[in-house]
Write a structure and sequence with these properties.
28% strand, 214 residues, 6 helices, seven-stranded mixed β-sheet, two-stranded antiparallel sheet, single chain, alpha/beta
Length: 214
């Protein structure tokens, strides 16, 4: 079966069939070729309902988990998004399909470079890359960085203070919070300078390694 046909089935059964209704999210999943973001030896598994290893001890997340996190963010075309955990670049591409700009951080240089190459090949020009400690967000002493949406693709023992600080007023963040073996997707909303937290479903992510992570 062609990858395009597998992609359509993934959207129909793994996403729509499990409650993903946001049309912007569904259209992004229809468009982005997941097979481009996985190692050659597992390309035939690109559209199965599970995470896949991408090297350096990292994974590309299960499509449904990525979709539900993006849906919970309530992404808008004018949003400036911070992504913690570039990984393969697949989620980065999905975000870039919807948002105005995506700032993405990963601590693994080889993954950052590989993702940058694939995303450039696919024609994305609204993505900014950085290799560093994602638990501290997008640090820039010259600029006050505030993001409309923040998505964290690694598990933290608590919500990093730096990320909360970089979230814009009325902004939303989603992050897996818990221990190294089991976490809960947590939505953070900033209103009038105050933080509201909402717990979602359980999940399992690789740990967020850094000063404000593990």
């Amino acid at each position: 079966m062609k990858f395009e046909d597998q992609r359509k089935l993934m959207v129909q059964h793994q996403l729509k069939g499990r409650g993903i209704y946001d049309q912007r999210v569904l259209q992004a999943f229809f468009k982005v070729p997941r097979e481009k973001f996985v190692p050659e030896e597992v390309k035939h598994l690109a559209y199965q309902d599970s995470p896949l290893g991408i090297g350096d001890g990292q994974t590309i997340s299960q499509p449904y988990i990525v979709a539900t996190m993006m849906q919970d963010l309530k992404l808008e075309p004018h949003d400036i998004v911070l992504e913690i955990g570039t990984g393969s670049g697949y989620q980065t591409a999905l975000l870039a399909e919807i948002a105005s700009e995506v700032f993405t951080v990963d601590r693994v240089w080889t993954l950052t470079q590989r993702a940058r190459e694939v995303l450039a090949e696919l024609g994305y020009d609204n993505i900014h890359f950085r290799c560093g400690d994602g638990s501290k967000g997008w640090e820039d002493k010259k600029l006050k960085c505030y993001f409309d949406k923040i998505i964290v693709a690694a598990a933290a023992p608590d919500v990093p203070a730096s990320l909360t600080k970089q979230l814009a007023e009325n902004g939303r963040m989603i992050i897996p919070v818990g221990n190294r073996f089991m976490q809960q997707l947590t939505i953070i909303i900033k209103k009038d300078g105050e933080i509201e937290k909402f717990g979602k479903e359980g999940c399992t992510f690789v740990p967020l390694i850094g000063q404000e992570g593990w």
